[in-house]
Give the backbone structure.
Amino acid sequence: MRTSFAIRLALHGCANRPFYHIVVLRRYKARNDTPVDQVGSFDPLPNKHNEKLIAFNFERLRYWIARGATPSSPVEHLLGLCGFFPLHPRTYMVAKRNRKNKLIAASSSELTEEKTDA
């Protein structure tokens, strides 16, 4: 059942420095239209401690979900990482892809070391 409200990311920030507000909007409104409520924020660029910062107001989030608002896929992913929802399937896919890329990079570096030793 589709409701009239959606919880999604609204892009803010400036060029090459994205910053997102997690907002509740009517489903048919544009991404950066005036929100009904702001329930959090997300900074996708890592800070000096290599952390991506996410802030949620879980009380307001519970309220809007109880009223029937449905989160978008990226917001579901973030809520899964925060422990509010079960982990999103995308989380498992990204982790598997990262492990595979790490193994490929390690094996290619070993091959280049063997060639330089010979």
